[in-house]
Amino acid sequence: MSKFALDLMNCFKKARVFLFSLLLVVLYTSCEKTEEQNSIGLFEKLSVERSGIEFSNNITENDSINYFSYLYLYMGGGVAIGDFNKDGLQDIYLTGNMVENKLYLNKGNLQFEDITHTAGVAADNRWVTGVTLGDANQDGWLDIYVSVSGKWVTRKNLLYINDAKVGAIPTFTESAEDYGLADTGNTTQAVFFDYDLDGDQDLYVANYPMTAPGQNMEKYLNYTNMGTPYDQSDRLYRNDGNGKFTDATQEANLVKYGLSLGISVGDFNQDGWPDLYVCNDFVTPDYFLINNKDGTFSDENLKLTNHTSYFSMGSDVADFNNDGLLDLLQVDMLPKSNSRIKENMATMDMDRFYDIVRNGLHHQYSTNTLQLNMGNDKDGLPRFGDVARMSGLSSTDWSWAALFADFDNDGYKDVYVTNGVRRDINNQDFFKVPKEEMDKLNDLQLTKKLPFEKIKNFAFKNNADYTFSDFGEQWGIDFEGFSNGVAYGDLDNDGDLDLVVNNLDDISIVYENKASDRKLNNFLRVKMNGPIDNAFGLGCKIWLEDGGETQFQELTLTRGFQSSVEPVLHFGIGKKNSIEKVRVLWQDGKEQVLNNVEANQLLAVDYNNAQTKGESQKEVRKKLFEDITDKVQLKFKHEENPFNDFAYQVLLPHKTSEYGPALAVADIDNNGLDDIYIGGAYGQAGKMYYQNADGIFVEILNEVWEADQKQEDVGATFFDANGDGLQDLYVVSGGNEAENESEYYQDRLYINEGQGKFRKDSTALPKINSSGSCVISGDFDNDGDLDLFVGGRLTPRNYPVAPRSYILRNESSASGPKFVDVTEEIAPGLAHVGMVTKAEWVDFDKDNYLDLMLVGEWMPISYFNNVQGKFVNETEKSGFSDTTGWWFGMISEDFDNDGDIDFVMGNLGQNYKYQATEKEPFSIYMRDFDRNDKNDIVLSYYESGTEYPVRGKGCSSEQIPVINYKFKDYKSFASASLADVYTTDELKESLQFKVKSFASIYLENMGDGKFKKWPLDNLAQTSSINAILADDFNNDGNIDIVVGGNLYGSEVETPRNDSSYGSFMVGNGKGSFSSKMPYESGLMVKGEVKAMEKLKLAGGHEGILVARNNDYLQLLKIL
Hints:
Layout: H1 3-39, E1 43-45, H2 48-51, E2 79-82, E3 91-94, E4 102-108, E5 111-114, H3 116-119, E6 127-134, E7 143-149, E8 158-162, E9 172-174, H4 176-179, E10 187-193, E11 202-207, H5 216-226, E12 235-239, E13 245-247, E14 260-266, E15 275-280, E16 287-291, E17 297-299, H6 301-304, E18 308-309, E19 315-318, E20 327-330, H7 338-344, H8 350-358, E21 364-365, E22 369-376, E23 382-386, H9 388-391, E24 399-405, E25 414-419, H10 435-438, H11 443-449, E26 455-456, E27 458-462, E28 468-470, H12 472-475, E29 480-481, E30 483-489, E31 498-503, E32 509-513, E33 522-529, E34 541-546, E35 549-554, E36 558-559, E37 563-564, E38 569-574, E39 578-585, E40 590-598, E41 602-606, E42 611-612, E43 625-627, E44 663-666, E45 675-678, E46 687-691, E47 697-700, H13 702-706, E48 712-719, E49 728-734, E50 748-754, E51 757-760, E52 771-778, E53 787-794, E54 806-810, E55 819-821, H14 823-826, E56 835-842, E57 851-859, E58 862-867, E59 870-873, E60 885-886, E61 889-893, E62 902-906, E63 922-927, E64 936-943, E65 946-949, H15 953-959, ...
Parallel strand pairs: 18-21, 33-41
Antiparallel strand pairs: 1-32, 2-3, 3-4, 4-5, 6-7, 7-8, 8-9, 10-11, 11-12, 12-13, 14-15, 15-16, 16-17, 19-20, 20-22, 22-23, 24-25, 25-27, 26-29, 27-28, 30-31, 31-32, 33-38, 34-35, 34-39, 36-37, 39-40, 40-42, 43-75, 44-45, 45-46, 46-47, 48-49, 49-50, 50-51, 52-53, 53-54, 54-55, 56-57, 57-58, ...
């Protein structure tokens, strides 16, 4: 064959391959587009003509009914969805404040008929709020419990007992008085649940006592000490099973004062008994009521959560991450936009905030909280960490309801949030009007002068990685108005969840879900046919298990805000056509297992087919860590001294005086067991603990450490300073309590004289008066002794100016130890490198000289190459110049087994109020903006491409009073950019730093002095990482890491970083790590971890010692 023919044939082959590849791309793109198109307009808003539902919760303000005469005017009404006549179709009940309630009978095809008056459920002229469904008389029919509030007529709640007419128009008999449930406590919502497991449904009633603004903390404390009046408490009613309920509030230990808005029921600690979470408004703390299994409850909120919402409104409980544990979402009123935050959110008074904390009312912040269940602690109580900021759910404006539900049937629960308050009752400018002007107007006139703005509702798609994406607009359910109650149910029996929203001053909305019509995903719906006393199976638990994946739900009807959902459990199951195992657990312990259940059906589960569980051994995960702190008698508690850093710098992002304690571990007497030095805060002596042969730790040499108790210990290391083979101790002094260059910051060296004795050497160190952070030893000049790097953490009271750091050369001799400051001589660029937090000696280039790697706050990862004893800053050369962060942790190892040293770097994390991206960095500027000979600091962030100051007008003007003259009102400041407030020229002349990512990372060594950044997984980003250990903890041949963190000292308008309980991260030997939850590993470390060290224990064991600020030492044995 000729060359021409061969070439022509090859051309045809290449063309065919190209066309085939092109076809694949087209087909793939088409599939991708179809998936995307399927999610657009997932819901259709039904017209009134189509649905027949025209209910509108209209408020008619007048001289006696207005905001200033009744502060609870705009809480709105609720929604209840249930099949009231057992015709297989879910009906809708809507409540109104000044209009009658409405019951709509489902006629099929999403058409509804108003049967309110026939059914007898309109209510009278009472101010109705919430509604819930349940079976109050154990007859197998849904009854309606209606909450009543107000101050004009009776506040007695209503109970509509279903007259039980199969297939006919349902009718009801109002029976609250007869049943003992005509509660008068100013109710917002209630929930049916079986708290005593006697088989019938009891009732918890959430009340919101009327109170004057600003008195709630004082009233709460007074009632706590003196006793809460009966009419100021929520109520618990026990179902006696004979058509009567008994008030069991007092005997259940539930007489408590709170402004209750939301209730969630669930077995949070997995002991088989239902617990309660109650959301309370304003300063009154939420209740986390753990069922004691004896008819009483204990409020464990302070122990189980690290902080909560402040204006806690609606809530929902569900397993959003499919790990089998119940998580909790509660909504508050934090706006999403810069302008609404600054117009409507008051400055939090710092003294009041800490009064709230000191009086045991918890750390409360005005933000939504998504409490992730970390599993039970050693006492069997569940621990939670708020991940709302990282998840994307923290800021949804003035929100009322939060609902978990799988709207797109992909197997992960999404979130819907209702929004809007009829008038902006927190508008800062309105309440700055002079009193004499306000006094000229009556209450109605004042009310009508309040501004208002319609706010969109939110829908969030679950991304299955602890994050959610805002899909409200894409799904077509982002109604803009004033929405309160909302409920879900499959109104057309097509296998997806429809929504009903109750709006204030607007027609209620029915949204038809199109997921099933578009065959987006498959589903499985489960209906419980329960025992006689619990026909709907309330409290029943269901697990779907398939291919190593699990979904879990527990049936409760009261969800969101003032609303009740259908009594069916709905599971989206993605593309699965069947489920390997469906496990049903009834409240009395009976169990039922169904195998190979087909998808896309309503599965009826009958209690009569369940069997009593045997005594089979419960699966116990093998834990890797065990807390042995008490066993080894370690009882040291670091006690932080009170100090107000903000008195010196008003706009500090966080406290700078709480960086301790120092921690160092070494075998001080060469007996093969490690001993401990733990530092104290200002006014507290450090302690040294000797480990005896029995593994018990004993205090020694108290008099040595007592002499230096006036210094704050923030860093420490044991090393052999004088070459005698004994471990000496270097302690770094730090903090913010004293002025810059004070003797208070002088570091200390304690010489080990053998036999467990130490003495302080006051002549060995040069003058070091920088507020420090860390110290590391290494022989950088290869002369056979150990030199030191000492990191400067802070220029006291002048954050973020870089302090002095030091390289100390060891020039010890026979006459004694001596260290000389040679920083300027061998590393001039190192002296003021930044606010250093961690340092490591590492020989990167394998030239047998130790190089230096540093990280810090507002610092890039910094690399100093040791060129034969001289340090050259090669940060930029290594590709680190754009890595500025709040780096708090660092460790080096060959994590990917390629023969070179890699790093894991701990940053602030991605669950904090401060967020940063490449295009929209988070920044700080420092300059004397108002020319008063004192530096001012300004934090900034971006929104939609514009840079704004983080803080509002109130606190910004406290630092620079002229701001009040430049911006006469909150509205003008709210719209002002950073340059508008501080001017472009001033900002250009400022000291400034920009962070483009707060993610903690794995830093892969690519060779030739180059590195590649890989973010750690999302679970590792839930808080700051301050301390890291590396080892093969699970004995699989790969290096794993253990991390600890949190940042408690945030300014009071920023929720503290407190969601970490420590994390065990499994390494795969290729540079990737997978975070394990505390319940999986046994590693549960609550608190602000500042340091961790491995140590050798008696009996050949190893442990991890954890030092926490203002908390006890904790020792974990590695199993």
